[in-house]
Every structure is written in structure tokens, then in C-alpha cells.
Design goal:
Blueprint lengths: L1 E5 L2 E5 L5 H7 L23 E4 L6 E2 L10 E3 L3 H16 L10 H8 L16 E2 L5 E4 L8 H10 L4 E4 L6 E4 L15 H5 L5 E3 H4 L8
Parallel strand pairs: 1-5
Antiparallel strand pairs: 1-2, 3-4, 3-5, 6-7, 7-10, 8-9
Length: about 210
């Protein structure tokens, strides 16, 4: 067993357990954006940062395995400052605040992030509603990669592809021809994992009203 200390509490975990899993085993929490427990840890968003004694800087909790004797601080000031700045930058590119029910909104609340301090270019509205069940609101995409990995790792359909870099980064279906002409099998895994509603069920955007009796 591997012995570690998290926020002053000792814990024994199986070798290979990640810091994030260990924190959760103690009933704690660390904000995440690119993490989905159904997928292999990615460590791209740098929101799940924590402090670790002896480390040169904050470490990503989702991809860092626990080492014997490791001392973790989930309230580390530097880690929280970096994570907060990351979320602020993500929010600054969106044309509107994230819906309250989304994971992105929950992460912003957990980190006490309000209005971004760095206003700048924002994505224009770009909706793809050609699929019979799914809608893609490209302007809400934060390039976390979860939908692409869900399509590959969970479903094995390989219908989605990450495109562009920096501000222009986004996700395309097929050869950028839309979901309808891609290898999409309508499983909904991408919509289920999306933390911003960039991909969502079409019915949630256009509710079906019952016919009058």
C-alpha cells in the first residue's frame, strides 16, 4: 500500500492510485474540466492543480500517481491561483456565461470566478443542427477534448476530431461536414460528457410541446 497525507489527513491507497482519486476517497474535491472518470486521464486543462511537498510547482491531480510519503495540499494558494486564471480565460472567450447546470458553471462557482478580468475576442455564434438528435453550438466549445475521447474510447466511432489551435481550436464531425455525414452512431456519449452544452440533445434547444387535446 502507498501511504500519503492529504490536507493533514493520512490515507493508504493502492499503488497507481491518482491524487484525484485519493482526494475523492477522503470525501474531498478538486475542480476538473477535462476529466471524465469513464475516460483515461488527460491532464490538459490544468484546473485540477494541487500542491505537493517537494514539487517545484502545482501538480495535476488527475494524472499524478500517489507516491509513498506524498503530502498533498488541495488548498495550495499557487495551484488555486493558476486554476482560477485558467477558468477566467476560458470564460472570457465565450459569448455568454455558461448555463447554470453545466460543469463549467459549477467549476467557476467552486473557484469563485465571476466576470473575467481580461475581456477580449469572443467566439461568434455557430450552430450545427443538421443531426436529428444532436446540436453542436461551436461557440461554447472550450476544447477540453472530452467529446472526442468519448467518441473514441467509449463508443469507438471516431466521428469527432479536434481542429485548430489557440483561439480557433474547436471540434469537427467527420471531415468538417457535420454530424449527419460523419461516422456518428447517435449514442449521445459526446453530449453526455460535454461540460458546457457545446454538444447537447437537440430536443433541449427546441422543446417539443404536447399537442392540445
Amino acid at each position: 500500500m502507498t501511504r500519503i497525507t492529504i490536507d493533514g489527513r493520512d490515507l493508504e491507497v493502492e499503488p497507481g492510485t491518482t491524487v484525484l482519486d485519493a482526494v475523492r476517497a477522503l470525501g474531498g474535491s478538486v475542480p476538473t474540466l477535462c476529466f471524465d472518470e469513464r475516460q483515461a486521464p488527460f491532464g490538459a486543462c490544468r484546473v485540477c492543480l494541487v500542491g505537493a511537498d517537494g514539487a517545484p510547482g502545482p501538480i495535476p491531480a488527475c494524472t499524478t500517481p500517489c507516491r509513498d510519503g506524498m503530502v498533498i495540499d488541495t488548498h495550495d494558494e499557487t495551484a488555486r491561483r493558476v486554476a482560477t486564471a485558467v477558468v477566467e480565460l476560458v470564460l472570457s472567450e465565450l459569448p455568454e456565461p455558461p448555463a447554470e447546470h453545466t460543469e463549467l458553471a459549477a467549476v467557476a462557482r467552486a473557484l469563485d470566478v465571476g466576470e473575467p478580468r481580461w475581456p477580449g475576442a469572443q467566439h461568434d455564434g455557430d450552430h450545427d443542427e443538421r443531426h436529428p438528435y444532436l446540436a453542436f453550438q461551436h461557440e461554447l466549445c472550450i476544447s477540453c477534448g472530452r467529446c472526442v475521447r468519448a467518441c473514441e474510447e467509449v463508443q469507438g466511432a471516431f466521428a469527432l476530431t479536434a481542429t485548430g489551435r489557440g483561439f480557433t481550436a474547436n471540434v469537427a464531425a467527420g471531415l468538417d461536414a457535420g454530424f449527419l455525414d460523419s461516422a456518428c452512431v447517435s449514442c449521445g456519449a459526446c453530449a453526455d460528457t460535454c461540460p458546457t452544452d457545446a454538444i447537447t440533445e437537440l430536443s433541449l434547444l427546441t422543446p417539443v410541446h404536447p399537442r392540445p387535446a
